[in-house]
Q: What sequence folds into this?
């Protein structure tokens, strides 16, 4: 089926999430809850996108034929920034003792 991500037509299989379809098409959508050994999808809120004019979490919403997805806008960046600040506020940042220290997606997304 065809859907549109940031104005580009892409093909995706029925039943996959927006996050999976975007990744297969080479479009990066930041996410934290989809990491191994972390809370289940949908809990971090970082992968929020606009799909057919509605804000949704890309890791849980399935694609639909003709769907139009925007992954990057000023509003989405502001929303992600706010959510990241909330997550960072509750984070210990004991990085030297963390098993993800050398490959930390949280720090990578914060830096973005």
A:
């Amino acid at each position: 089926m065809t859907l549109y991500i940031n104005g580009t037509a892409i093909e995706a299989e029925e039943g996959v999430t927006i996050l999976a379809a975007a990744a297969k098409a080479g479009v990066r959508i930041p996410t934290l809850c989809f990491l191994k050994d972390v809370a289940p999808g949908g809990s971090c809120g970082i992968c929020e996108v606009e799909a057919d004019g509605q804000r949704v979490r890309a890791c849980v919403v399935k694609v639909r034929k003709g769907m139009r997805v925007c992954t990057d806008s000023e509003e989405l960046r502001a929303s992600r920034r706010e959510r990241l600040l909330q997550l960072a506020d509750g984070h210990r940042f004991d990085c030297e003792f963390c098993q993800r220290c050398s490959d930390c997606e949280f720090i990578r997304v914060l830096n973005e």
